[in-house]
Amino acid sequence: MAQYSWFNCPENVHNQINGLLKDVKCCLKDNMVGIYLHGSLAMGCFNPEISDIDILVIIEQNLDDILEVQKKTCKKGEDINV
To answer: What are the residue boundaries of the Polymerase nucleotidyl transferase domain, all occurrences included (predicted)?
Structure first.
């Protein structure tokens, strides 16, 4: 059973996380303080068959406040996914 860290994990795992990071940065803009990889992938014991991916997102403002502003500024028909 193969175990991986961020540095040697399969390409599809990298792609999933990089896509999420791009979306989070776009959504939160200046409200994002940091994004941290946590859990098995950070500790080097990630198994793609059974492990999940743990990511912590630290924000400046209350998430409800951020979503309220986005609801007011998004074009009709756009989804807000957080």
So the answer is: 32-76
What does the domain layout of the chain look like in residue ranges?
Answer: 11-73
> What span, in angstroms and rounded, lies between the C-alpha atoms of 46 and 48?
6
Residue in the block written with tokens 């990511």:
55
The owner of tokens 């409800």 is 64
C-alpha distance from residue 70 to each of 17, 27, 42, 75 (Å): 23, 8, 31, 9
Separation CA 17–CA 23 (nearest Å)? 10
Q: Is the pTM of this model over 0.85?
A: no
Q: Tokens representing 47?
A: 């198994």
User: Which tens digit of pLDDT belongs to each residue from 8-48?
Assistant: 999 999 999 999 999 888 888 888 899 999 999 999 999 99
